[in-house]
Write a structure and sequence with these properties.
The protein is mostly helical. 86% of the residues lie in helices and 0% in strands. Helix 2 runs parallel beside helix 7, helix 3 packs antiparallel against helix 4 and helix 3 runs parallel beside helix 6. The longest helix is centred in the middle third of the chain and has 38 residues. It is globular.
């Protein structure tokens, strides 16, 4: 938490040094527009946080120690992909926003970004699936051999995830954060339902 606050404070300081202090003014209509847009983004972020961390408060009660360790090892693959997708989203959002009035160019840019990310992630996940039976015991030891199948399943799940990973920046760029919020809610519900079902079925 301290690190996050420090980084944001440094970023704010650098922005103020470059651009200077903004003019202080108040506009009720502008505030309403900003709140209408920003509240949906904030809601989507909160829902995504709950969804992304649901395993932390669901898994201890539904998984024993050994399955929990195997799950944690496999889930690292998805965590790395999520981190990379977040960074890509921060880069492509300004590009999508500049093209929001030219839907044909915006569609081409979205497809190009999705294709580029897929060309990196999909071969990597395919190799993970193919090499996991050899790589996991070789790197972590034979005691972790049972993590091979969970790792392969997570790697397979990661590939279709890449195809929709840039939908968030796209919906924000075209001024529809409500779509991002609704999709986040659907994702959270699916996660909260599927995790207990999957853990009980595998126990």
């Amino acid at each position: 938490m301290i690190q996050m606050v420090s980084l944001e404070a440094i970023s704010l300081f650098l922005i103020l040094c470059i651009t200077g202090l903004p003019d202080l003014a108040w506009s009720a209509s502008a505030a309403r527009r900003l709140w209408s847009f920003g509240s949906r983004l904030m809601g989507a972020d909160l829902v995504n946080y709950v969804s992304g961390n649901s395993d932390k408060f669901l898994s201890p009660g539904s998984l024993e120690r050994q399955p929990l360790g195997l799950y944690s090892l496999a889930f690292r693959v998805l965590q790395l992909t999520l981190a990379a997708s977040t960074q890509v989203g921060r880069v492509v959002l300004p590009t999508f926003a500049r093209l929001q009035d030219d839907r044909e160019r915006l569609a081409r840019a979205f497809l190009a970004v999705t294709e580029s990310v897929s060309l990196v992630v999909c071969p990597a996940m395919t190799l993970t699936i193919l090499l996991a039976p050899i790589g996991v015991p070789a790197v972590f030891g034979e005691a972790w051999a049972d993590a091979v199948v969970p790792l392969q399943l997570v790697a397979a799940m990661t590939m279709p995830f890449v195809l929709i990973s840039n939908m968030g920046p796209l919906t924000v760029a075209v001024g529809r954060p409500d779509w991002e919020f609704h999709w986040s809610v659907v994702t959270m519900v699916a996660t909260l339902v599927s995790f207990p079902v999957g853990s009980s079925g595998g126990s």
